[in-house]
């Protein structure tokens, strides 16, 4: 009887340890640099396709149509050698500004689609965009708190050029051509610097966090090492 009791106690302890191990959270494994880059590129291509399909149904006025035709004409002239490099750059800059003014609605729709894809979709999809899901990685908070829509919004503003696009829409609406071109170019340079610095930080730092991750205390980890969270909250 005594041996049986000892045996039962050992079995009970084993069951208890097994249950505790199931409850314990597995250590988070950082996503590989290649996984994050591939996920980023997949999202970029997919979002471009979605945006193109949706915006093609937005009517374009005659002025914008003529500008697109003029843009193609200048490009053909440059390829054929009838338009010099200087003429090509000057004309394309002017045409691009005029097109931007005529297609503000398309730019706004593009921003909305980006917000839905990079903020709303991953908020209700376990911190994953389609690209991240395909690469089996996800976004999570470093302090294990609930990932919020505000976190994803700030993150995507920095990392996915949404803030730059919003600024460019405001600039083209309220500034003259020369000031718009110079300011827009400066903002674009800042965005490229941010992306470059983030890539370096992700590739070479221990925590593998870019500037966008540091800003909201998030990290990207292997999805199968983290249990699925509840739907993310609308705010902090």
Short overview:
By secondary structure, the protein is mainly α.
Largest sheet, spatial ordering of strands: 1-2
- What is the ordering of alpha helices and beta strands? HHHHHHEHHHHE
Structural class: mainly alpha
Q: Radius of gyration, rounded? A: 25 Å
Helix content: 55-70%
Total count of strands: 2
Strand content: under 5%
Low-confidence stretches are: none
Number of helices: 10
Mean pLDDT: 83
Shape: elongated
Q: What would you say this structure looks like, in words?
A:
With 236 residues, the protein is mostly helical. The protein has a domain at 103-224. The protein is built from ten helices and two strands, in the order H-H-H-H-H-H-E-H-H-H-H-E. It has a two-stranded antiparallel sheet. It is elongated, with a radius of gyration of 25 Å. The model has no long low-confidence stretch (mean pLDDT 83).
Secondary structure layout:
Blueprint: H1 2-23, H2 33-55, H3 62-80, H4 85-102, H5 104-123, H6 130-134, E1 137-141, H7 149-159, H8 162-174, H9 177-204, H10 211-216, E2 218-222
Antiparallel strand pairs: 1-2
Core attributes:
about 240 residues; mainly alpha; two-stranded antiparallel ribbon
């Amino acid at each position: 009887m005594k041996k049986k009791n000892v045996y039962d106690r050992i079995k009970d302890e084993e069951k208890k340890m097994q249950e505790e191990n199931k409850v314990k959270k597995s250590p988070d494994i950082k996503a590989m640099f290649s996984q994050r880059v591939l996920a980023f590129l997949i999202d970029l291509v997919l979002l471009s396709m979605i945006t193109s399909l949706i915006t093609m149904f937005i009517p374009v006025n005659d002025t914008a149509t003529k500008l697109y035709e003029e843009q193609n004409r200048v490009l053909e002239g440059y390829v054929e050698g009838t338009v010099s490099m200087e003429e090509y750059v000057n004309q394309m800059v002017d045409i691009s500004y005029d097109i931007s003014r005529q297609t503000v609605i398309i730019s706004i729709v593009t921003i909305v689609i980006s917000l839905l894809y990079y903020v709303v979709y991953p908020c209700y999809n376990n911190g994953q965009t389609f690209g991240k899901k395909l690469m089996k990685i996800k976004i999570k908070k470093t302090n294990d708190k609930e990932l919020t829509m505000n976190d994803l919004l700030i993150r995507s503003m920095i990392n996915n050029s949404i803030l730059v696009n919003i600024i460019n829409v405001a600039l083209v609406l309220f500034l003259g051509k020369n000031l718009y071109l110079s300011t827009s170019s400066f903002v674009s340079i800042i965005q490229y610097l941010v992306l470059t610095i983030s890539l370096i930080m992700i590739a070479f730092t221990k925590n593998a966090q870019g500037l966008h991750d540091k800003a909201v205390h998030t990290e990207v980890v292997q999805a199968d090492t983290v249990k699925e969270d509840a739907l993310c909250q609308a705010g902090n």
